[in-house]
Amino acid sequence: MFWWIAYSGEPKFLDELLFKPEHSLIDQSLSARSSVTPTNGDGFGIGRYSERETPGIYRNFRPAWNDRNLRDLAEQIRSHLFLAHVRAATGTAVQQTNCHPFRFGKWLFVRNGVIHGFREMKRDLVQEVSPELYPSIEGTTDSEVMFFLALTLGLEDDPLAATARMAHLVEQVGRAHGVEEALTLTLGISDGKRVFGIRYASDGSPRTLFHSRDMCALKELNPKIDRFSDDARAVVSEPFGTLSESWVEIPPSSAVIIDGAKLETREFHPSSPH
Amino acid sequence: MFWWIAYSGEPKFLDELLFKPEHSLIDQSLSARSSVTPTNGDGFGIGRYSERETPGIYRNFRPAWNDRNLRDLAEQIRSHLFLAHVRAATGTAVQQTNCHPFRFGKWLFVRNGVIHGFREMKRDLVQEVSPELYPSIEGTTDSEVMFFLALTLGLEDDPLAATARMAHLVEQVGRAHGVEEALTLTLGISDGKRVFGIRYASDGSPRTLFHSRDMCALKELNPKIDRFSDDARAVVSEPFGTLSESWVEIPPSSAVIIDGAKLETREFHPSSPH
Amino acid sequence: MFWWIAYSGEPKFLDELLFKPEHSLIDQSLSARSSVTPTNGDGFGIGRYSERETPGIYRNFRPAWNDRNLRDLAEQIRSHLFLAHVRAATGTAVQQTNCHPFRFGKWLFVRNGVIHGFREMKRDLVQEVSPELYPSIEGTTDSEVMFFLALTLGLEDDPLAATARMAHLVEQVGRAHGVEEALTLTLGISDGKRVFGIRYASDGSPRTLFHSRDMCALKELNPKIDRFSDDARAVVSEPFGTLSESWVEIPPSSAVIIDGAKLETREFHPSSPH
Amino acid sequence: MFWWIAYSGEPKFLDELLFKPEHSLIDQSLSARSSVTPTNGDGFGIGRYSERETPGIYRNFRPAWNDRNLRDLAEQIRSHLFLAHVRAATGTAVQQTNCHPFRFGKWLFVRNGVIHGFREMKRDLVQEVSPELYPSIEGTTDSEVMFFLALTLGLEDDPLAATARMAHLVEQVGRAHGVEEALTLTLGISDGKRVFGIRYASDGSPRTLFHSRDMCALKELNPKIDRFSDDARAVVSEPFGTLSESWVEIPPSSAVIIDGAKLETREFHPSSPH
User: pTM of the full predicted structure?
Assistant: First the structure.
């Protein structure tokens, strides 16, 4: 079980949203309240956009809460759009290349969830990655395979459509391996301008996903921040601390697209790639 | 808050006692039940005696539960006397040299507890370490300073007496810094033959410490082990899983000495070094 | 460029052969003399057989020369058959799962060399790994893929024949990708009883490989060791220090099989799997 | 033996000066040409000033050349004043807290060199650190002790005078331990505005230190950079690649002060603190 957040808005120092709040992301990594796995101590990562088109990523296999470099970077780096992720490994190795976010060109990708039966399906899934993209796979997680499948199926042109095709493909390969409902996920995807948040599960019961309704929601991330810009938005895989009405649950089988001040919700259903 | 175990008896593979039981030490490191700090993910160490007089130690700053080398070593290494420790850092850096056990010659040392006000007292305490021993200090924890103070005060000749002197010294320096009850600890010390378990706190309320009453207690460590030798003994800082009558609580201000099949309990009180 | 050694004979503490000699393996990792890459600081591993059929492995992504746990383990662990390997990464990530030796059941596998054009060929090569074995691949190196191809092609029944088939397959896939001479390697393989050392390159000019002629060769590994057993043998990918006549160069396109005191040399040529 | 660089001038991305040049700092870390220790693979650090008064530091115990986070950070971070350092450990543990730069408030400190006999002198030296500063010592190196001694002796008011007092003190304690010529060093110190480069050895033969004469020197750091600002300056502990006349050797027993476009050279001699 993982934990992630995406922020888009006026540039903020990362530590203002990741470390300072009482029930911060990093805090959560020590003892996630609503998670199945008790502790998210198997690595973390942050990806953020600043001056260059390619986002920067910092990933480490150690617990987020005891990484001094992370704390220091979060104090120094200001970004208008960033994603952060903490990991609780569920079988694959605890190493940097297995930490989220994954990056390809200007794209970032984080995920919470599992592919049921991935160990058995992996070989078939990986064969669907295009030969051009295949060499860029660096780790061994199901998340990274999903990212490269979505890239193969057109993520750079239409992230939601490509992800829907990827979901279809994974479920199809799952059934071929006798797994009826292979997929459960919440996804965060960005190109540096937009944030896509997707919530879906084959069995209709995905993990949680929320977006901020207004500035009050953001102030719950860190009450000490005086103001957020009008276009500031956040997506979180689990609410920080107590859930208030300022956070809107993204319904199962749906997605949000955040593009500056605009927030749009759409249905999300797997669709055949062909 | 830390967690430790000492085992003495017929040689066992380390994984039989550290990984296999349902509520194993490694398990506990993920979510210690009665600890103040929720997770012990800031490093661990094992020290064990085998063919050579000097014990071997393996320490790492990452969580015990995701270290594959640890798992592998525990499967391969058999020892008649070993100590294991998991760490939840409380201020000092998460690095190998701050992990327990600490070693000097044939001696191993693990600790659970704190010195209240250590940050302010450290300079004065360290000055009490003998010039010959001083250069061997490698880390920055209060535990290691306590070990080197005890070594300075005669640990190699009489571990309990030297530890009592060390406790006196720490309380004395504490009072000089306005800390009335500086010390709370459980200690595990060994020379490869004997195991010393000490439980003490300046305010009379130290953390827990238990020793096994009989083979039934040891079988609770791992029910799948058919038999333990008659002289097998264990000391644990917290009971594994539910506490049964097979585990004997070591009273506050007391110590146990395990020497083969013999187990002796003594009072433990700080005593002036002079 | 990597560096490896295999030892078979009377049990020795690992540090006697890895750390103590003046131009030791670990020493070599700091400044390999005849290597293309100047320093082998991108991880290392040791695999050794002792009481259990499954060998133990200890691998780390940091430089061998500054890993205290390695030094400590080498002092404590005694083995009658072990392999050690130091790594200089040539593109794939520096992480534990990419360190040699690779292990499957009772088998260990180390390699020096490269597959030219591996990045482009990888997808096709990996598809040849059997579906049963595929999920056990943990890292991202060409070496591990070669190991799993050889396992797919019968390594557990006949290591040399399976490796010859694997070599054929790699060269075939290479040619399909426009790489005429894809392979250059020295391989060390063991099942805990026998050591297989293979030297081969598609272009006829593989990297070096040597075996000990007699006890004098072994004493060059560590002059302070008084005696080696009559059946003691070593294979090294590069000679320690100055090369003496006590070390026999294994010719290109050939292999040695060490089985206790017996040492046999055979020709080695790629052969079609079909 | 270590290696360091300081840059002051128009903001540059760190990778432009650390990774891009053919004989870059990171390159040097793999095989330093004029160093005593062949490889600087025992950690590294970068410290840089940007929006906040407190500089950011990123330090790691692994080799600089294989740290992907470092490469990524260097691509994203732009700074008008930064220091970078690579380490070859000479006895003390390879861990983050022993990596340079050391930081206190707005001050950064890097060093190349040794204190001869430090192991024996350490206890006496550390006692000279003021009780207020003592708790901030995090590692175990002689470099950090020197930094805290200089802080104790007034570094924040007058860096050169405080360093001269520190040098005097170290030589004095050295002589008390029978070490006639204890010190050899090159130091880089900064407060975010000025860079201080100091070259000194008790025996008159310190390690090398250079500063850039003009923009041509800087362009040798990376020929692909079109232009440097007029006030751009660099100090390097060893020349990159071949030494040209664009680099000026800082004489033994002297220091440079860079303050924007101004560069001043002064004599540097140990002076009694009293």
Answer: 0.90
